[in-house]
C-alpha cells in the first residue's frame, strides 16, 4: 500500500492508550516534521515509551488518530515496517549469533542497505564482530542496536536512549551518525533522558508528562531564545510581585521550588544590582547567586518538577 502525500512524518491527534485502570497516554498530540530530529523527553512513567511503541506499531491505540509516513502503524504494518528503523533497548537478537552476522542478515532484508563493514567500523563494532551477542558488553549491545536500526536506510528511525551507557567517544560517533541521517533526509525520533543530547541534536523537542505533550518547540524556543537566568536562594515565599515591579522592563521572577528563585530577562550588571538591592531592602540574605544560560534541563524541571519518579 502506498502512503498518501503527507506533510508530517508522524501525526498523532488525541492519542489514548490504557492498561486496565491506568491511562499511559491521555489525549496526546504530536507532530514530527520530515527530515528533522525530534527529541521526546519525559520523566519515568510519563508515557513517552508507550507513545513511541504506538508509533512503531507494536501497540494499538485505544482512541485518537495516528499516522506514520501517512500510514496506520497497525493496519498498514506490512507496508510501513520496511520504511522505518527501530532501536530496541533489549531483545530482538539471538543470544548465540555473532554481531556482524546479525547486522549482515538485517542488511540483506533491505534493497539498498548501508555498507555493513563501514557502519560496523564507525560504531566500533568491527573488533567484536565475531563475538556472540550474549558476550557483548552493554555498550557494544547498544551500538549494535543502533546499527540494526539504521542499516536498512530507513525513511524514519525511532531511537530509544541511543547513547545510554556509552563512553564519550561512542556517544560522539552516535551523534555524528544521527546528524548524517538528518543531512540525508532521514527523520529521527529519539527518546532520551540526556538534556545535552536533546539540545545538541534536536530540531524539535516534545516534553511529555502524564500522558500528554505539555510543551513543544525548538530548543531555543523552549529555553526562551537562549537567554540567561539569574538564580539565588533565600527564604521560601518571598514577595515576587514586589520583585517583579523592581526589575527592568522585560524581567520576570519565579520560585520553581521553595526557597529557589529564578530571575529572567537581560542578565547584565544592572539586573544583578537590582536584585541585590531589592534583597537588601527586604531583609533577604540571598545565597548562591549565579547567572547562567537557561537550559533545556531548567525548562524540563520547571515543567515536570524535581521529585523523583518511581
UniProtKB/TrEMBL annotation:
Protein name: ABC-type xenobiotic transporter
InterPro entries: AAA+_ATPase (IPR003593), ABC_transporter-like_ATP-bd (IPR003439), ABC_transporter-like_CS (IPR017871), ABC_transporter_ATP-binding (IPR050763), P-loop_NTPase (IPR027417)
Assigned GO CC terms: plasma membrane
Main location (coarse class): membrane
GO MF entry, a single one: ATP hydrolysis activity
Residues in ABC transporter domain copies: 10-235
Entries under SMART domains matching the protein: AAA
Similarity annotation: Belongs to the ABC transporter superfamily. Drug exporter-1 (DrugE1) (TC 3.A.1.105) family.
Any GO BP: response to antibiotic
Biological source species: Streptomyces radicis
Entry EC no(s): 7.6.2.2
Location within or outside the cell: Cell membrane
Broad class of enzyme this protein falls into: translocase
Membrane topology: Peripheral membrane protein
Keywords, in A-Z order: Antibiotic resistance, ATP-binding, Cell membrane, Membrane, Nucleotide-binding, Translocase, Transport
